[in-house]
Amino acid sequence: MSTTYKCPKCGNTVTLEQPVETITCPYCGTAYNTASNQQPPHFATGQQQQQQQYGQQQQQYGYQQQYGYQQPYRSNDVFAEGPSGKSRGIAGLLAILLGAFGVHYFYLGKTTPGVIFLIASIISCFSLSIITSIIGIIQGILMLTMSQEEFENKYVNPAVSFPLF
User: What share of the chain is helix, strand, coil (3-state, %, to 5)?
Assistant: First the structure.
């Protein structure tokens, strides 16, 4: 007979063959008492408790359902990688410095816009490369100033295949 427990931190279901008193969630690593389904105080550090409380607060506001992340992503660091593994800081700098060639699109995994920018810059030599450079600078500034969620929704997982602004 198997027993099912729900992790209080990540909400994933853990199934065990025999009932146990304490379990460590294989998904998020949280240890908790199965009798009360609460995290025992001797397992949690202060930082872990704060992260758990923050995650519960964000879950109440619906961030997990809205953005589809396991844990809501909050960071003021521009160069931190988001849930997709892409850094908006690196993408922004690539757009500012090499935007005329579409390098930032290749970094984001958008090969079609990258190839269009690259071909437009190579074929036109100078005239279209000025336009693609200006577009790249604007995109880079936007990437550096927006939040990680906005960046993910607009450039990494967009509704359109050619995200400009």
Answer: 50, 10, 40
113 within 8 A of 105, measured Cβ to Cβ: yes
Residue for token digits 């506001």?
61
Q: Alpha-carbon distance 117 to 106, whole Å?
A: 10
Answer yes or no: are the C-beta atoms of 43 and 7 closer than 8 Å.
no
| Residues 17/11/85/117 CA torsion (nearest 10 deg) | 120
Structure tokens at 130: 């000025």
Do residues 5 and 16 touch, judged by C-beta distance below 8 A?
yes
Strand, coil or helix: 65: helix
Question: Is residue 142 a contact partner of residue 165, using CB atoms and an 8 Å limit?
Answer: yes
Render pLDDT for 68-101 as a digit per residue (tens, 0 to 9).
444 445 567 888 888 888 999 999 999 999 999 9
